[in-house]
Automatic annotation (TrEMBL):
Substrates-to-products reaction catalysed: cob(II)yrinate + 2 L-glutamine + 2 ATP + 2 H2O = cob(II)yrinate a,c diamide + 2 L-glutamate + 2 ADP + 2 phosphate + 2 H(+)
Sequence similarity: Belongs to the CobB/CbiA family.
GO annotation terms (biological process): cobalamin biosynthetic process
Protein name as annotated: Cobyrinate a,c-diamide synthase
Cofactors named for this entry: Mg(2+)
Residues the record marks as site: Increases nucleophilicity of active site Cys: H442
Gene3D superfamilies: 3.40.50.880, P-loop containing nucleotide triphosphate hydrolases
Annotated EC: 6.3.5.11
Organism in which the protein naturally occurs: Nostoc cycadae WK-1
GO molecular function: ATP binding; cobyrinic acid a,c-diamide synthase activity
Positions of the CobQ/CobB/MinD/ParA nucleotide binding domain: 3-196
PROSITE patterns: GATASE_COBBQ (PS51274)
Lipid biosynthesis in keyword set: no
Gene name as annotated: cbiA
Amino acid sequence: MALVIAGERSGVGKTTVTLALLASLCRRGGQVQSFKVGPDYIDPMFHQYVTGLACRNLDPVLTSEAYVQQCFAKHRQASEYALVEGVMGLFDGVMGSGTDDSQHPFTFASTAHIARLLDLPVVLVIDCSRLSGSVAAIAHGYCSFDPKIKIAGLVLNRVGSDRHLSLLKDALQSLQLPILGVLRRQDNITIPDRHLGLVPTGEISELDAVVERLADLGDTCFDWQSLLPLLDSQNSKLKTQNSKLSTQHSALSKVRIAVARDRAFNFYYQDNLDLLQQLGAELVFWSPLADAELPPNIQGMYFGGGFPEVFAEQLTKNTNVLQAVKTAIIQGMPTIAECGGLMYLCEKIIDFESKTYPMVGIIPTSACMDKRLTLGYRRAVALQDSLLVNAGTNIYGHEFHRSSLRANSHQPLFETYRYDCDENMGFEGWNLPINLHASYIHLHWGASIEIPQRFIQQCQSHRMCYSNVMT
């Protein structure tokens, strides 16, 4: 089996509890495969830093219910333990049309939905900092709301004192619900955050010390005798399925793709990178911040999201790379740029203090930071044939950014809608014929293998055309 760590709402300490469990398990010598519900990039970075294994996102909106089950079954089998961190509150989701949300359709893609899909027990984290007797009403409500969800026990977080804990235990006694962990208010474990959530792992100099403190917390604050049997990944009822890739697609011939990965660009789904490699790509990781030039002999480029606005001054000073990227795209190199990557390809980035930094300049507009957060799942309808999709194709993605473009494309990639209704969100994305896909919308390719296939095929075509020109 595996275990789902859920919260009664956002901000109750799910990530701290999850990281403490992961760190303690790794200290014990176990290999742990972690998963994250939803489209998040940053929490999985912390999981991977602790476990040494890439965390896998479980998101039926970006992929499908079948893919979620397949992904979980495939990756949990190689590890001794498996742990799933939820998203927001246990039942917070969207309206959906899946096969497993008939009782509460508004919980599609929620932590509860994933727990039902995978038939996993849930540990509920409750923020007790302003609670005493009311904790029992909260726990009872969560246990009774959906009978398909098995609440294996509770973690009481931010407990203030022994007296406070005694009141909580007395209130919960009638529910006969196991208390699997008690965490006191922590002042010595702090992970900094900024405008899009936690600061990524690559920017935290004291992270090893934080992980050690999390492991100490995990060692002392949980009922391991009860937890370990629940965390045993080999007890899962899900059977490993053959992947869609291995059964229906063969690898294409090798191409070299430059993947920007450093402190400015680090938002990638590991499944996307895996698919590129399985389809025949050699991924060459490089840094637009630190490297003096593009990697040699590449046939494609991939710029993920991240925080280019935070490192704009350093990016703008690397003029050789800015010019090399622009030249490569002008010469037809197939290029994907998502969110932060889109911003990098603009003429300028304007930061929160209205300072302006020149960027690549292939997209004729500026990316301007502002306080308004654009957030949510999107249904995007392709308006024309592009690097990744044909005109008329519906794809599903996720937006999460605090920047906006000062001008819209005359040939946008998509017309976009909210995922769970028909509200039109306008036109989005920039498309240079054949070779550039630049968009704020993050895509997971797990259930859409035709997207990376198409990208690699375009990279192969570019290599052949470039070779013909050179000869």
